[in-house]
């Protein structure tokens, strides 16, 4: 049995976790920066990097102490090395390098997207490769065929906004604050999803990619027209987004070798309406539907530690660079 320290700092969550190869999260800490970024209506990279720098070292110390874990007894230190906001990624990766050097422990530089892609296997020992993954968050919007550790086939990506970003922008237009996804979902429950005619960008296209910029502009026009209730706009937006997701998935599934399971990850996986639609999509096709517990869906360090567990035995040089862009 091995134990890995995971570090995550690529966006606005500072997180550290200790995870074992037999899928135990021994200790974990996470601090969100929502309060710092809320006045600006979105994540400010410089503020994020400073907050990571202040919080990460005490957080790692707390996790190690809670677990009674000695640095030199770790089997690896895994840190997000990209993609993400470069200042934050550097804070986490440099911390990991320093600890790896001090404890003479292997460093594993993890692609944040790989962390999301493999996290369902931390929660579910029965989830074998291959599976299809819908990764939908504020920064990511992809459909992947996960074929093994390090083997990911990207079937679809967004040509403009990520799905969570579309929720956040809709929330901003409706004056609901940041982060907006949960607020839009709450308001949508009181509205009529058929009330406001909104476009479904790329629906019907033969390529499975996503696009949400046109939908966001249509939401803005609907709001500015003054002819609709906010709840109806929220419900109609959510319905349009959901229709896009299901249509895009259907196209992606036409083009791939069969997989036994559909997995969803990323913050938008919290949305009950979207989850319900994905469940039906999976049921219609005889697929197992897997949604990891929410704390594992959103950005966290346990998924980075787990990616390290999956990669145990490998190591990266201490001069490896942080990468703002790093496609899987
Ligand atoms: O994975 P995550 O915590 O961070 C990254 O963006 O990587 O995802 C956060 C995103 C935000 O855009 C947020 O608005 C969205 O997930 N989100 C939701 C819901 N909860 C969070 N979107 C729709 N419905 C929700 N209930
Ligand atoms: Zn993420």
UniProtKB/TrEMBL annotation:
It is found in: Cytoplasm. Binds 1 Fe(2+) ion per subunit. GO terms for molecular function: iron ion binding; tRNA N(6)-L-threonylcarbamoyladenine synthase activity. One of its GO terms (biological process) is tRNA threonylcarbamoyladenosine modification. Fe cation binds at residues 112, 116, 299. The keyword Transferase applies. Residues 25-306 form the Gcp-like domain. Required for the formation of a threonylcarbamoyl group on adenosine at position 37 (t(6)A37) in tRNAs that read codons beginning with adenine. Is involved in the transfer of the threonylcarbamoyl moiety of threonylcarbamoyl-AMP (TC-AMP) to the N6 group of A37, together with TsaE and TsaB. TsaD likely plays a direct catalytic role in this reaction. This is tRNA N6-adenosine threonylcarbamoyltransferase. It comes from Pelagerythrobacter marensis.
